[in-house]
Amino acid sequence: MVMAEEQLHLRKSKPVMMAAGVIWAVIAFIAIQKGVPQEELKRAVMHDLEEYAAMFLFLLVAMTYINAMEDRQVFATLRSWLISKGFDYRGLFWITGAMAFLISPVADNLTTALLMGAVIMAVGAGHPEFITLSMINVVVAANAGGAFSPFGDITTLMVWQAGKVEFFNFFSLFVPSVVNWLVPAIIMSFFIEKGHPPGVQVDSTILRGGIIICCLFLVTIFLAVSFEKGLGLPPFMGMMTGFALLMFYTYLMGIRGLTSNRRLTARPRPKGEEIDIFQEVAHAEWDTLLFFFGVIFSVGGLRYLGYLDLASETMYADLGATWTNIIAGLVSAIVDNIPVMFAVIGMDPEMNAFQWLLITLTAGVGGSLLSIGSAAGVALMGTSKGSYTFMTHIRWSWAIALGFVGSIWVHFLVNG
Q1: Which of 144, 297, 350, 382 could form a disulfide with 20 if both were Cys (CB 3.0 to 4.6 A apart)?
Q2: What is the pTM of this model?
Q3: Distance of alpha carbon 367 from alpha carbon 375, whole angstroms
């Protein structure tokens, strides 16, 4: 049902939340018959809740910061600048791809893809082949860019928070990620038409406070790393502390000063300057956050029953870590990479940092092989007005597969 989200028009969070409830209800029913103490079941559920809460708080802060930057027109201004520069089609192909690769390690790949997709649609009107190739390029670049950053993708964040790879070790995936993007990009660039798009005038400026909010986001990321590395606290504590900075700053934006009786008064703000941080929280990607709940508790239930131990023994013991991790990356092109990665973490196979980085890489970039394999691809299919579809993407899957294989080879060459 998750895979058929676009056809069913059913948000992916709904079926996995239902699955989580059904799985644990069945477990509890069997446990009562087997005489398993209820306290044992509660401990298992609370263990999953602890994992979910840490990830939920981290992601909620990151999403709120991104929404606040969108409110301040940071991304819209960047888009306007790109459109107004008058690049030719090939130049725009490379610039949108490079920016997707560089923005996605900080912003999520969905936001990055939508930003670059808006640029492509604005300048590529009437040129469907340019739109198709550019959007495929953005999907691959956004997924590849998120693979080498601990907070660039939910899967990398999961591996970091599980303590499998140190924060700075993720950046050793930078070169393999570059290869993953560049190989298909170079191939597709030969098919980009020559010429310049017609001039498009789009005006947008960063609203008051936008630059400072960007700086506070960088400070928040620094706090998350510092809390984990320096204080031994979970990264979400640093993120929540940075969230408080954002809340105080938006509060101060609305304060003019002290009145004669020394009471704080709200400054009358022109239209467009107002920012309510709790509105930005409300606009977080709740479908993704609740989907993550369903995944963690569904996989947690299967782990409690022993299925993950059996799968780990069959796959990692028989096939070996390398082939299993590569296959898991290929599976993530069909099944969402979040349950794939959480299942691997739940199996907890004996692997060194190199192999954990391998599964991080393959699960992060494997979704690029199909348009339905990542949030970036699904989102762009919905905004391209038919120019970018499942079938137009699959025509270039062979080039993306070359990048997938090349990135794995480079990972062995550079990090092995």
Answers
A1: 297
A2: 0.71
A3: 9
Determine what percent of the chain falls in helix, strand and coil, rounding each to the nearest 5.
75, 0, 25
Structure tokens at 163: 């303590």
Sequence ranges of the domains in the chain:
12-26+36-415
Give the C-alpha separation, 397 to 401, whole Å.
Answer: 6
Q: Which conformational region is residue 196 in: left (phi greater than 0), alpha (psi within -120 to 50 degrees), or beta?
A: beta
Query: Would you state the pLDDT for residue 377?
Result: 79
Give the residues across from 258 on adjacent strands. 264
Q: Which residues of 317-341 are buried (b: 16+ CB within 10 A; e: fewer)?
A: eeeebbebbbebbbbbbebbbbbbb
CA distance 72 to 275: 8
Q: Which two tokens stand for residue 406?
A: 């090349």
Q: How many CB atoms lie within 10 A of CB 175?
A: 16
Beta bridge partners of 211: none
- 3-state SS class at 265: strand
Q: Are 238 and 224 in contact (CB under 8 A)?
A: yes
pLDDT (tens digit, 9 = 90+) per residue, 189-237? 998 888 776 655 656 788 888 889 889 988 988 888 788 777 888 888 9
Specify the amino acid at residue 262: R
Question: What three-state secondary structure class fits 259?
Answer: coil
Of the candidates 90, 115, 100, 113, the residue with the CA atom closest to the CA atom of residue 197? 90
Of the CA atoms within 13 Å of residue 258, those in its CB half-sphere come to: 3
Rounded CA separation 351/323 (Å): 13
Residue the block writes with tokens 């991104």: 66
